[in-house]
Amino acid sequence: MPALNPHILSLFFESANMHRWNDHIRPVDLTELDKQAHKAAIAWLLGKSEERAGRKVDWRAVIEHTMFSFIQRSVLTDLKPQVFYRITSERAEQVNEFVLSEVARLVPDFHPALLERFRKYLESDDGSLEDDIVRAAHYLATRWEFELIYESNRSLYGIDRTRREIAEQIGQYIHLRGVSEIMAAGGAFDFIDLVGQLRFQQRWARTPRIPRTTVLGHSLMVADAVYLADIDDCEDDRTVYNDFYTALFHDLPEVLTKDVISPIKTSIDGLEGILAEYEHDQMEATIMPLLSPEFRDEFRFMVFDPFSDEDGGFGRRKGYQIKTCDMLAAYMEAMISRRYGVTSHSLTEGEKAVREKLLSRKGFDVKGLVEGLDGLEI
After folding, report:
1. CATH, domain range 6-374
2. Are 228 and 118 in contact (CB under 8 A)?
């Protein structure tokens, strides 16, 4: 059974329909898919800060545990955080068995070895560095969301208690160097704030869709897909790291330019090159200064020309496969909206064009994946 299969992609994508803070006034829509994407980006920054402090980070564990916590949250739907934490602590064994049974139902072709690691993740509470990084990233992403909605909800009963609870949860991980850096005003916080702004940018601009996915949520779909493909290919740890985080950050320059749709890029002569040059200059001027100098070159490798297979001195990267996963996520966005009954001429044509390009791609079984997605009950 391949790790990358239609059912697990559908499970991830369904989280775009899970709305967060939906018992509060929200100036913008906040979804679980976006929250998990933001968490993954924050976890990268926390892990790099730990490496800068001289600690060894198991990046495969960080990536996989980020994905496992995503699966757990997706299966337990949109429980209020207080309820989620209480039942997972007081009824851990029963909750774990429910989660595993739901995963077996929703993803009947779940990769056996990956499923066993997921079970161990649910049952483990060893407090590893990697799990601390993932949990701290979770609470920091929650805090970012909360600060976004706080002013609109200041009159709500219990809002300040929620603020204290979030602060207490983050306080458990203050021993991580990156947590204190993010909590202080400065580059680390500004970086995760900029990443978070990709949660405001809609994919398929000017085209009605359900669900309305964002650039950041799309990026996590691409990253998780390429990680699963790397499991199937038995890739080494460095390739896994390069592929996942390149995919996660591949659209970050769009925070500086917005998501310019492909027809506009290609129909105006020279526009694509102008945008690329502008993005490069603005990344250097705006985003690179927010990162520690020790890993700026590595970040350049990830965000500049992300679909190339070049080594760049940082190990192997499968840029061609990342691009295939990027197209796969785009196909899901168009196809699923149409299946929900919300479509348009431009979306239909976009879906058709992406599908045709996908089916010409080499590598993993793209044809089988596309046909499997087409056959899902939606």
Report:
1. 1.10.3210.10
2. no
